[in-house]
Amino acid sequence: MKQDVIEKSHEERDSLPAPAGIAPSLDEYALLLDIDGTLLELAPTPRDVIVPPKLGATLQNLHDRASGALALVSGRSLTDIDVIFAPLQFPAVGGHGAEMRLSVDNEAVASRAPPMDNDLKKRFSAIAALSPGIIFEDKGYSVALHYRLAPQFERTIYEAVSAIRADLPQAPFEVLPGKSVCEIKPLGITKATGVRELMTHPPFAGRLPLFIGDDVTDESVFEIMPSFKGVSFSVGRRAHGVNGHFNAPKDVRAWLAHLLDDEAIGR
Known about the structure:
- The protein has helices spanning about 5, 10-15, 55-65, 80-85, 120-125, 155-165, 190-200, 220-225, 250-265, and strands spanning about 30-35, 70-75, 90-95, 100, 110, 135-140, 145, 175-180, 180-185, 210-215, 230-235, 245.
- By secondary structure, the chain is of the alpha/beta class.
- It has an eight-stranded mixed sheet with strand order 5-4-3-2-1-10-11-12, sandwiched between helices.
């Protein structure tokens, strides 16, 4: 990838299109990819996502060509990520940075985040009783309230979460709004903290990170890419500070598949 692209100012980068024709060397870059809304289209519930037939093979081939320097970066738990892409497994940062797997040959590397207190989880899960369309998801380290099936309850959900926050001001959690989801996660643990740690371990250490994400939960990673001389792309919107954007997940998948073609030509 040309250095002048990497060194663009924030203002210039905001106006760049999707990276058509840009082909990072898989020997130099680490591919860091969000899942929901980036690799996969969003679905009414987390379990309803569909993995296109060719995506698994594309990711596996990119992982192999990059000598293992491909990781999925998600709010989902590692267990959930593995269920989605079964029987394949990939290095991953899960739970918004709360857990990590450096390679498919290693056990998960636990981060500094303890599992969320069960009593606290119960208080958040009770909010789902407001409507059958509100889905409560227990991720272990964090929880989420999905309301894509009940968008009219968005304000009510956030008011209920705020009431819990006010009742427990010392509880170590923070609220992170997403696309039709309210995430409640450990304080100080973000995708960015997970990516920073990931980039200190082989095979990621010493490479330039290339991150693709789509929503508010990915903005912390967008922000740290310049410190690694890395690049980032948003999906579905022009996020601030990124090097360009894709219109939809299908465009991300097509570009990733094209990287394999470019690598084959360059050999």
